[in-house]
């Protein structure tokens, strides 16, 4: 079949799960012969944290951004202008990875500037602000084909919204993430003052959705039996405002007599450069993924590929692809359960890294994800009778 000309739109240049998904998908689609362009909004001097092997178009952000609503509106506007300037109709597939880019495409569709678009829903958030809630809703309701990275969200969209979505899971790069130490490992330890451990790693920053407060409480209990333990909270390049929750976490850390900062009990790294993450996974003794809500949980596969045991919430989407041989389960609403699961992972490490983990990783390659995306694209094009150039 003829190669497709595909535009992938992502909301940020920073390392968030949806952005990583976009760049990995762009690389995999390019490797199987498709012509891919990644669109991302960017302020002055900003570039993607990792450059894919394809064309990149930065959508300049020009509107002022005093509030979260202003920020979202500015990015929608940036996408809208960039897509017009790049002749959006020249692409076979326009694929939004988030609500921000989805709204830009929905507006172009309403203006009859494009015929339709594809949208991936990683997860949905709750917004008290009516404009943010309306933007989120429009981005999937106006899409002509919706994809989800896990069955739980495919089912949610069908039951709550009447949207017939298709599940297309994430992948993992087992050459980038592996147990083999490299020259980044020691500098990462030195940079953040990571000692002998054990080291509990959480990825995604400090967020209510990530259940950081409950993890902090569990970690305090772990320190009672493992006084050298450190909690490393990595990442956090979010466009949403988590300041109030972060303050509550820092206040609770002080109440628990946990020091925060490099060389201390709790290390909050903030956003990290791309090369740091594989080393941080290897340095960790366990990854804690006790989120209350996730789209897929890509870092779970990245940790397992790095040889690091995982504690995951006993909820979907994790229950869709993990089992007792590939993770330790925790009830994310029960601090004692989180504590017990972390201690089990640290003390016993009963996960099957010889057979079950490699078999799991083999099921989730970016090549396979790209092929499934292409199938969905061709189905979308056939269903909507859009011409393939």
From TrEMBL:
GO terms for molecular function: glycosyltransferase activity. InterPro entries: Glyco_trans_1, Glyco_trans_4-like_N, GlycosylTfrase_MSMEG0565. The keyword Nucleotidyltransferase does not apply. It is an enzyme of class 2 (transferase). Its EC number is 2.4.1.346. Residues 16-176 form the Glycosyltransferase subfamily 4-like N-terminal domain. Residues 198-349 form the Glycosyl transferase family domain. The keyword Transferase applies. It comes from the Bacteria. Pfam families: Glyco_transf_4, Glycos_transf_1. CDD domains: GT4_PimA-like. Keywords: Glycosyltransferase, Transferase. This is GDP-mannose-dependent alpha-(1-6)-phosphatidylinositol monomannoside mannosyltransferase. The gene is pimB.
């Amino acid at each position: 079949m003829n190669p497709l000309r595909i535009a992938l739109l992502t909301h940020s240049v920073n390392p968030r799960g949806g952005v990583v998904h976009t760049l990995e998908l762009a690389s995999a689609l390019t490797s199987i012969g498709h012509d891919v362009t990644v669109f991302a909004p960017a302020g002055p001097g900003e570039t993607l944290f990792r450059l894919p092997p394809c064309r990149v178009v930065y959508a300049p952000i020009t509107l002022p951004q005093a509030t979260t609503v202003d920020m979202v509106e500015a990015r929608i506007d940036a996408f809208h202008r960039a897509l017009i300037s790049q002749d959006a109709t020249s692409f076979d597939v326009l694929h939004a990875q988030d609500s921000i880019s989805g709204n830009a495409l929905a507006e172009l569709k309403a203006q009859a500037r494009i015929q339709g678009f594809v949208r991936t829903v990683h997860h949905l958030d709750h917004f008290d602000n009516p404009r943010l809630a309306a933007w989120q809703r429009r981005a999937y309701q106006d899409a002509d084909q919706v994809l989800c990275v896990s069955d739980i969200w495919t089912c949610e969209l069908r039951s709550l919204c009447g949207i017939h979505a298709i599940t297309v899971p994430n992948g993992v790069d087992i050459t980038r993430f592996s147990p083999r130490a490299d020259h980044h490992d020691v500098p990462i330890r030195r940079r953040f003052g990571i000692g002998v451990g054990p080291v509990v790693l959480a990825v995604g920053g400090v967020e209510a959705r990530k259940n950081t407060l409950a993890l902090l409480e569990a970690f305090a209990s772990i320190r009672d039996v493992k006084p050298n333990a450190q909690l490393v909270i990595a990442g956090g390049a979010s466009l949403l405002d988590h300041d109030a929750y972060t303050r509550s976490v820092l206040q609770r850390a002080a109440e628990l007599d946990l020091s925060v900062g490099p060389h201390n009990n709790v290390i909050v790294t903030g956003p990290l450069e791309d090369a740091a993450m594989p080393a941080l996974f290897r340095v960790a003794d366990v990854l804690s993924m006790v989120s209350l809500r996730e789209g897929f949980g890509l870092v779970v596969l990245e940790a397992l590929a790095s040889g690091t045991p995982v504690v995951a919430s006993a909820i979907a989407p994790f229950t869709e692809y993990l089992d007792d041989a590939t993770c330790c389960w925790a009830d994310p609403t029960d601090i004692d359960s989180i504590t017990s699961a972390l201690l089990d992972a640290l003390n016993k490490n009963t996960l099957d890294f010889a057979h079950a983990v490699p078999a799991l990783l083999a099921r989730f390659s970016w090549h396979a994800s790209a092929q499934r995306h292409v199938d969905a694209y061709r189905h979308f094009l056939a269903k909507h009778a859009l011409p393939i150039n």
